[in-house]
Structures are given as structure tokens and as C-alpha cells.
Amino acid sequence: MNNFNSRPVVLCLSGHDPSGGAGLQADIEALLAQGCHAAPTLTALTVQDTRDVVDFRVLDRAWVLAQAYAVIDDLPIAAVKLGMLGSVEMVDTVVQIMQRLPGVPLVCDPVLRAGGGGALGKDDVGYAMRERLLPIATIATPNLPEARILAELPEGTADECAEKLLPFIEHLLITGGHGEEQQVHNRLYSRQGGHHDFTCARLPGSYHGSGCTLASTLAGRLGHGEPVISAVRSALDYTWRTLRDAEAPGRGQYIPRRLPLDLP
Questions:
Q1: Do residues 255 and 207 touch, judged by C-beta distance below 8 A?
Q2: For residues 13 and 85, is the Cβ–Cβ distance under 8 A?
Q3: Is-contact 256 210, C-beta < 8 A?
Q4: Alpha carbons 39 and 9: distance in angstroms, whole number
């Protein structure tokens, strides 16, 4: 029997990770777990494993636009999730795509460094994202090293980065976990002055695809119509569970387990 009450559609503009830990595969799995339909639009190809990125290639602008427009013209987009863009030209491509989607929530995951430390774009990509993407995004989800790149504060604290970035964006979630603290602090800042601190227990090991998982889940929750603060809490809780249950199929980082084991 056909079901015409379709799930929220989330347009994902992300790179492909052949290890399956991050990128579009992470987006699809996380969105399935939220009861959403993922519409993956490929922005870049990478050569990487669970340890680090070796190389990447950003797709031609026309191909990305063609993919996105085909989806937009066919499916009702409830939210958009950005992952790896890799070039200033791709930043401008996303700005052009979003002109077709006025009022649609946009979650910007500023993928500027791989989990293993490798760069995923030149330094000017971070500047372009801050100046042109953050102003049209609903929320950005950088980790602290990425927030420092966006804010151009190499040694900045989360509070200092937020002060620099909030003039550009309404909501900013700076994720923790890069220090040695026993409790991981994830800090949500809002331009109107709101500040929420979400803490969770630190888990052992390092993880490949945690940022993609969080941003995709958050886009899914916003696509369901959940308010920002509640959606952030839901996304952080779900992401922590995927890390708690993570597996290590390769020789590098753990991969979050985003889907239950009993799926056929």
C-alpha cells in the first residue's frame, strides 16, 4: 500500500567518503534514523580511510547545481545540511542553491579539517563560509578548531569565537571534545544573547564522522519542525549514543553506529 504522508526531505550537500564513516553515507544513515528522507547531492570526491584524508577533488559547479535543482524541482525540501564544500566556488554554489529555498532551515557543518587533521580546503574557504554562508544559515556546528578558523582566532576560546561569529549567524553550536576534560561541553550560542551548555561524558577513542552525524541529525530534527534548542539537544543525545555504540572496522578511528543492528 502506498503511503502519501512522506517523511521530511533533507537536501544534503556533502562529500563522499569511501570508508563510509563520514560524508554522504553518514548523512543518509543519520537521517534515516530520524525518520527523514535524505536527498544526497555530491559536492566532492575524497581519497580517505578511517585514519585521514589523502586527497580530494571538488566537483564541477554545473554538476552540483544540476543535482540540487533536479531534487528541488521534484521534492519538498524541509531542511538543508551542508558538509564538505572544499572551495570558494562551492560556497558560492550553495548560496545560489539556497536562493531557490527561501525560509528553509540550513545547517552548516563547516568541514574544514578531517578527523585525522588533514585540510579539506584552502584557508580562504573558511573566510568565504563566514562571510557568505553563515548569514543565510539557521545554525552552524563547528568544533572548536573549526570555530577558530572561521573566527580567525588561532588560540580563541569557544566564548571568544562565538563573540566574533554571532554577528554573522543567528545560532552557533561549538562542539567540544578536543581537550582533556572528563566532561565534553557543547555550547549553543544565539545572537539574541541565549547560551546553553550541553555536557556529556567523554568516551574513549576518536571518531570518524561524528560531526556529519550531528549536523545531519540536527537538520532532520529541524525538518520535522522541532525548535532549535530542542533539536540541538535531540541531535547531541543521538550522536552521543552512536559514539557509545561505535565500531572499529578499519585500522583508524571508530565509526559511529547510526542505525540499529536489527535492520534487515
A1: yes
A2: yes
A3: yes
A4: 7
Dihedral of alpha carbons 69, 209, 107, 113, sign: negative
64 grid coordinates: 552540483
Binned average pLDDT, 10 residues per bin, the chain of 264 residues = 76 96 96 97 95 92 98 98 94 97 97 57 80 97 94 94 97 85 91 91 91 97 97 97 94 93 55
The pTM (predicted TM-score) of the whole model is: 0.93
Using DSSP's 3-state secondary structure scheme, residue 133 falls into: helix
Handedness of CA 97, 98, 104, 109 (dihedral sign): positive
Residues across the chain? 264
Q: How many CB atoms lie within 10 A of CB 238?
A: 21
Burial class (CB in 10 A: 0-12, 13-18, 19+), 148: buried
